[in-house]
Amino acid sequence: MTLGLVGARGYTGAEILKLVQDHPHLELSYASSRELAGQAIAQPDSGISLPGEYEHLDPADVAQRGVDICVLALPNGLSEPYVLAIEKARPETIIVDLSADHRFDKNWYYALPELTRNMAAGQTRISNPGCYATAMQLALAPLRPLLQGPAHCTGVSGYSGAGTKPSEKNDPDVLRENLLPYAPSGHMHEGEVSHQLGIKLRFMPHVASFFRGISMTVCAELSEPVSNAQLSEIYNKAYGNEPLVKLQEEIPNVRDNANLHHATVGGWTAGKNDQYAVVYVTLDNLLKGAATQAIQNINIACGFDELEGIPHG
C-alpha cells in the first residue's frame, strides 16, 4: 500500500521513514518537508536508504497524490487543512495523526493498541497517542478498578521530545547537568489520559539532558491494600502476552529502552502502610511513543500482522 508522510523533517518523521523502508507491504509515495525540499531522502549516517527527494507539498498537493495511507507528523494545530483536503479528494485514505489535534475527537479512533485494539476494525481516522500519555496509560490502565483519588505521575523525557525547533527544552546549555521542569499544571497529556481512562491524575513533566527516552514514575492511591505479588499478577494479566510491552520486577532504566520498539513496565511496589502502589514505565519517545505505535496502528488498519515491519523479540 502507498504511504505519504507530511512533516518528515522531525525526529519522529525520520523514524517513520526507517520503519517504512523495511516494511514488506508499504511503499513510500512522498515525504513532505518545507525545510528539506529538494534534498535526497537517503542521507549518509541517517539510517534511511529510501530513493527520491523530499518535497514541499501543501494540503491540496497532498490530497492530489491519492495515497492509501497519509501520516501527519506535524506540530499541534497544523493537521486540519490536510485532513479536510484529503477527505474531500479521497475520503477512503487512512489518516494517522501523530499530533494532539484529534485525541479528544469522538470521530477519530484513539489508537493505543494494547488498550484499544478491540475498537480498531474499519477505522480510517487514527489519532496516535502522545508519548508521555502512552507511558501513563500503560501504568494506570491495569489499576483502574482499584484507583482512588488522583494518580500522581512524574515524567522525565529526553530532549528529542521537544522537537527540532530551538527552545530551552532542547538547548544543551540549559540542560547541561540539569533537570528542567515545565508545564506544572494543565499539560495536554494530563487531560489526554484523564479523558481516555476516565480518571483523575496530576502530571509533572521534565526534560533531561539525554536525547531519547521517557522515564515515568506513577504513584496511585488504591481502594484496598495490595501486595507486590498481586501487582505482579495484575500486570502480567494485562500485558503478559503483549510483544511490545516488557515486564520486569526491577525498576527499568531509560537507556535500556533507547532505540527499542517496546515499552517496559516494572518496579511495581505496594505501599507498606497505606493503600497505594508505585510503578515505573520506560519507553523510547520516538518509537513506542510515536513512530512504532503509528506502524502498529497502520498494520491493524490495513489487516497486516500487527508487528509487520517492527523489530521485536
Describe the fold and architecture.
With 313 residues, this protein is an alpha/beta fold. It folds into two domains: 2-129 and 289-302, Rossmann fold (3-Layer(aba) Sandwich), CATH 3.40.50.720; 131-285, Dihydrodipicolinate Reductase, domain 2 (2-Layer Sandwich). Helix content is 27%, strand content 22%. It is built from nine helices and 13 strands. The strands form two sheets. A seven-stranded mixed sheet has the order 8-9-7-10-13-12-11. It has a six-stranded parallel sheet with strand order 2-1-3-4-6-5, covered by helices on one side. Helix 1 packs across helix 9. The protein is globular, with a radius of gyration of 19 Å. The model has no long low-confidence stretch (mean pLDDT 95).
Span between N and C termini? 26 Å
Query: Any idea what the radius of gyration is?
Result: 19 Å
β-sheet strand percentage: 15-25%
User: What's the name of the CATH homologous superfamily of the largest domain?
Assistant: Dihydrodipicolinate Reductase, domain 2
Number of strands: 13
CATH topology of the largest domain: the name is Dihydrodipicolinate Reductase, domain 2
Arrangement of strands in the largest sheet: 8-9-7-10-13-12-11
Order of helices and strands: EHEHEHEEHEHEHEHEEHEEEH
- Helical run tally: 9
